Amino acid sequence: MPRRFYLHETIDIVGQGQYDYMDAAAAEPVHDMPGLFRLQGTFFVLGASGGRWPQVINIHDGGADGWDAWTRNLDRLNLKRRATFYGDWWDEALQCRSGGFDRIGGSVPGCPTREELDARDLRSSVFVHQVLQVRPGSQIDYLGQVVERRVPQLEARGIHLTNLLEVINNNREVIVVWATHLENWVQLRKDFDTSRGLDESGMADPDLLAWAEVENDIVTGGRTELMTPRPGSVGAVTSWEAEG
């Protein structure tokens, strides 16, 4: 099967426009057009979780056609085609955003597809968003370690992998996204601190320390932050009021 590609957007939001912008992202006209990007999820970065705000993260799935799908999407973004594909949408979206930053992510073995995530019906209320820098040239090695060691560790805790991507714009970034609930992520952090002798509210888990050694050997920087999904995002709750 061709490798899937994803458009990962970091959007700088004007004022408190995150909700309106996520609604606009969900209504982007190209989502209904065959062979073009489909929105996998739109999320706002949760305050007090370690990220920059106000920001929205969009993840678009390029589909099963791999590089050919990416080619079609780049072509429709040429200025000469913007009016054909977007109409007034672009100008309306600009009322809520001041700029942004794109990454193109290629899936690696172990990355679930949209169809697989839909089948799981996760209904998660919080997503953990990681954009990490690794030693140059070690992206695939690190992501393979995530599949082999981190995924089983976190699945047992109710923290589920949704994206496992090599950033193809450079040789040192990866994107890893997890779907869960806040209490599951907080319990992980408690247990990690207890395992290091820094807190007594969790349970010691030597596997968490072993994973930290893997990361310390490969990861050189980046960020981990929490995001709230717009209902309807793949793997998310079905309404703002849903608990799961």
Provide structural commentary.
The protein is α+β, with helices and mostly antiparallel strands. It has a single domain, classed as Alpha-Beta Plaits (2-Layer Sandwich), CATH 3.30.70. The protein has helices spanning 18-26, 67-76, 79-86, 89-93, 114-120, 139-155, 182-195, 206-218; strands spanning 5-13, 38-45, 55-61, 97-107, 126-134, 160-167, 173-180, 219-229. Strand 6 and strand 7 (173-180) form a beta hairpin. Helix 6 (139-155) packs antiparallel against helix 8.
The largest sheet, given as strand count, sense and whether it forms a barrel, is: 8 strands, antiparallel, barrel
Q: Taking Cα atoms only, what radius of gyration do you get, to the nearest Å?
A: 18 Å
How many domain regions?
A: 1
User: What is the first-to-last residue Cα distance?
Assistant: 33 Å
What portion of the residues fall into strands of 2 or more residues? Answer: 25-35%
How are the SSEs ordered, and which strands pair?
Elements: E1 5-13, H1 18-26, E2 38-45, E3 55-61, H2 67-76, H3 79-86, H4 89-93, E4 97-107, H5 114-120, E5 126-134, H6 139-155, E6 160-167, E7 173-180, H7 182-195, H8 206-218, E8 219-229
Antiparallel strand pairs: 1-3, 1-4, 2-3, 2-8, 4-6, 5-7, 5-8, 6-7
Tags for this entry?
8-stranded antiparallel β-barrel, globular, Alpha-Beta Plaits, 244 residues, alpha+beta, 8 helices
